[in-house]
Amino acid sequence: MPLFQVVSSTAVHTTFNAFFCFVSNEDEDTFKWALLQIKSLLQKEKTPLPAVIITDFDKALKNAANSVLPDTAQQLCVWHILKNAVLRIKKKWDGLLQGEPDAADDGDNDEGTCWDHKG
């Protein structure tokens, strides 16, 4: 059973675990439910909603956040970006070393292409 974890940061730039939720799956409806629970609790306690959320570009979570927290900016996690970059570079490098002529150009250089977050 996947664990949905929300981490927040303090004014002195330390992080803390804010919410945990076991979810039955990682689809949009489940993420909407989890985010609605968090939003409800924050509003009940008169705590401001988050200004920014950082994700691994999971499409279901991104859509759920757009629906539940439309005024919250979404950013990509740097760790996931770097991990994906390393994997893509390794694939290209391995292809070049094996003499694959098209390894340098995988046709994935189009603007707006999403990074594979599953890496």
UniProtKB/TrEMBL annotation:
UniProt xrefs under Pfam families: MULE (PF10551)
Domain named MULE transposase: residues: 1-84
Region (Disordered): 100-119
Compositional bias per record (Acidic residues), positions renumbered to this chain: 102-113
Domain of life according to the entry: Eukaryota
PANTHER family per UniProt: OS01G0519700 PROTEIN, PROTEIN FAR1-RELATED SEQUENCE 5-LIKE
Protein name: Putative MULE transposase domain-containing protein
